[in-house]
Design goal:
By secondary structure, this protein is mostly helical. It is built from eight helices and no strands.
Length: about 200
């Protein structure tokens, strides 16, 4: 029936849009590795994604918007894995799983996460995304610490404050280690895991 064609057309357009947006973000991530944020241009992104500059502007208004969307896609993976980690019953297993997933994500998307950290103070949207990510990770770490017997509460020696410090320690440690080599990432993970277990009283 003729009335069905517009619906089919809209669904097809939406699917094509999703594919194009993914291609734009994938290209942006590759260009971050090759050129860096400052040298990368909208024209570079459009060319790499196989579209015109005009077509790219249909999806994003600027290079900054593309990078913000790329950061949003990356931190969504972080949020998903953080929630899974928080659900593990045994705190030692939860810590080990959290560090394993952290290594995986920094291996896969370390450049995006370093870019997010670098831009978080100057691009409000990225800053908000990264702050929310830190809050979610801190909440997950708090849950693990509390299951290990660290009391809840506002004091510096209680779980929420300790979790916040651990979260930012892990971020900075991985930020620097990811610029060096994969073995350094694993060493950084082992160090952070040891500190987390020690602070939770789980090394005995």
């Amino acid at each position: 029936m003729p009335g069905h064609h517009p619906a089919r057309s809209r669904r097809t357009t939406e699917r094509k849009g999703d594919v194009r947006e993914r291609a734009i973000l994938d290209t942006c991530e590759a260009l971050l590795a090759r050129k860096g944020y400052d040298a990368m241009t909208v024209g570079d992104i459009a060319e790499g994604a196989g579209i015109t500059r005009g077509a790219l502007y249909f999806y994003f208004g600027s290079k900054q918007e593309v990078v913000t969307a790329l950061v949003a896609r990356t931190v969504e993976h972080l949020w998903e894995r953080s929630r899974v980690t928080a659900q593990a019953d045994d705190p030692r297993q939860a810590v080990a799983a959290a560090m394993l997933r952290t290594v995986e994500l920094w291996n896969e998307h370390g450049l995006v996460m370093r870019t997010a950290i670098d831009l978080s103070l100057t691009v409000p949207e990225i800053g908000a995304l990264w702050s929310r990510t830190a809050d979610l990770f801190s909440t997950a770490i708090t849950a693990v610490l509390e299951r290990a017997g660290i009391p809840a509460g506002p004091a510096p020696e209680q779980a929420p404050a300790m979790a916040r410090a651990l979260c930012w320690m892990i971020e900075r440690t991985f930020y620097h280690a990811s610029q060096e080599s994969r073995p350094n990432l694993h060493n950084a993970s082992a160090t952070c895991e040891h500190i987390w277990l020690t602070s939770a009283g789980l090394t005995a």
